[in-house]
Amino acid sequence: MDRRQFLAHSSVAGLATLASRTAFAATLTDGGRVRRALGIPELRPVFERAPLRMPPSVSADGLTLRAAARRVEIAPGVPVEAWSPGDGPVGPTIRVRTGDTARITLENALNEPTILHWHGLRVPEIADGHPRLAIPTGATYQYEFPVIDRAGTYWYHAHPHHRTGVQAYRGMAGLLVIGDAAEDALGFPNGEHELPLLIQDRRLAADGTFAYEPAMHEQMEGFFGDTAFANGIRLPSQSVETTTYRVRVVNGTTSRILRLALSNGQPFTLIGNDGGLLPAPVTLTQIDMGTGERVDVLIDFGKVAVGSRVMLMSAAFESPARMGGMGMGRGMGGGGMGMGRMGAGGVAQGAAMDLVEFTVDRAVTPVAWNPRALPRIATLDPRTAKRTRTFQFNSAMMQHNINGREFDMERIDETVRFGDTEVWTFVNDSPFPHPVHMHEVQFRVVERIGGRARIMPWERGLKDVVLVNPGERVSVVATFDTYRGRFLMHCHNMVHEDMGMMMNYAIV
Q: What does the longest C-alpha to C-alpha distance in the chain come to?
């Protein structure tokens, strides 16, 4: 079989596999596939930057979120249809404090089922947003749970089976910020000097609208937009003063790894990640984030001249994707920029992307944050683990699975005894990076073998997502002592989870 015959055979086999997954195939658009098949380039209009908006802050006590298709502005005078649980292009920012009780009603006015997952929060099974709990059009869902987690940056997003990617991409997501007295005492910047950012990437047509159209190869590596959004705003710009800001960043993209950096080379002070404040502040010039990960940083504009512009960007890096193991032939990878690295229209994992522009427009007396001791974190010791489990993440021939099994809504894949501490090891011999997310627990990363071969500074403290690159073996330790029930572990590349890289585990 020559190369052309092989490619044709692989394409037919891939399409046959896709045909059996009608729910996922429904996310594709014929028009986009036809354009690509005919070699017609996608239109890439140039747009001006738009003022960043902060979503409205709301309480979780008696909150109603109405999921609906809405005409919203993603820039001044640019209305589009978004799917959102609030009145804007993304959901409102929910602000709670440790010890509060959340009482939230979800109303579904979309034309398909949906459910919301409170990402990073430890909640009862009935409130976790498992896809089997998705509600149909016209139905409502009642959430009630105590807020028991540490102060930090969390988020919420749609989690229906096969449709997590498209729903979150179109706006079914929002920020959730927890505060507590211990954090209050640390004197971090707040009010207008605190900027929570939900980062997404989308593709734009000539009329400014966006669509979700994963081509066949993008169903393997992931779907990458060519334009950055923050809080639902296209190409956002934020005016700042010559002082220190607290910037909370959520990687809410479908698949993109972000390498956070500032365009002037200035370092960040990293103070927190997924599970709240770190054991100690860290000074860094770049931070890598897989989908679902969060970081909390301080940016000091005190020495930046008025009139200057500083870009929060995702710096360019070599994509960790490896085409050789894809099951589609090494020849397709070419010289390292083949289909596993470059999406339709030249959208690539690892390509530089400007995220948010900061314009320094007002001089004030700078207020720097004075480093001080951060709250202690309970130690999770892997030597106390009752059991070690290993999970193999596999991606080949149009399939994504864990330990050779695609997700089944009702099947329990692992059973954990309530109160036990365990070590879970995630092994990635696939060609693509996998940001692995565990529901219901915060874990500590204890080891990385292969690849980067170390625990990264932003992986200290407590986490609920860890990025596992090809060739890496990452071990985490967690204690399952909060609620009994059925929960999920999955890759948070939303294309991968929609195609089956997810499993149920039960705490009993």
A: 71
Burial 411-445 (b: 16+ CB within 10 A, else e): eebbebeeeebbbbbbbbbbbbbbbbbbbbbbbbb
Q: Which long-range contacts (CB under 8 A, 24 or more apart) does 448-457 make?
A: 448/472, 448/473, 448/474, 448/475, 449/473, 449/474, 451/320, 456/288, 457/270, 457/282, 457/284, 457/287
Instruction: Please classify residue 219 by burial: count the beta carbons closer than 10 Å to its beta carbon, then call 0-12 exposed, 13-18 middle and 19+ buried.
Output: buried
| 362 alpha carbon, distance to own chain's centre | 33
Which residues, 6+ apart, have CB-to-CB distance to 507 below 8 Å? 416, 417, 418, 440, 480, 483, 484, 485, 487
The tens digit of pLDDT for each residue in 125-156 reads 999 999 999 999 999 999 999 999 999 999 99
Indicate if the pLDDT at residue 45 is higher than 80. Answer: no
Q: How far apart are CA 359 and CA 362, in angstroms?
A: 9
Report pLDDT digits (tens) over 370-426: 888 899 998 899 999 999 999 999 999 889 999 999 999 999 999 999 999 999 999
